[in-house]
Write a structure and sequence with these properties.
It is built from 1 helix and no strands. It is mainly alpha-helical.
């Protein structure tokens, strides 16, 4: 595998990881603000 292929592969892996973590963070914050089951009750 060439260096450019490795770079593209690593870039794709980082993008997927960032997307998944970003989605989880947004869901966690919204869940916290809306009093979801992650925090166990009404915050606002």
């Amino acid at each position: 595998m060439k260096l450019t292929q490795k770079r593209i592969l690593i870039l794709i892996a980082v993008i997927i990881t960032a997307f998944v973590l970003g989605r989880l963070t947004v869901r966690g914050i919204l869940n916290f603000l809306l009093g979801g089951t992650m925090t166990g009750g009404n915050f606002l």
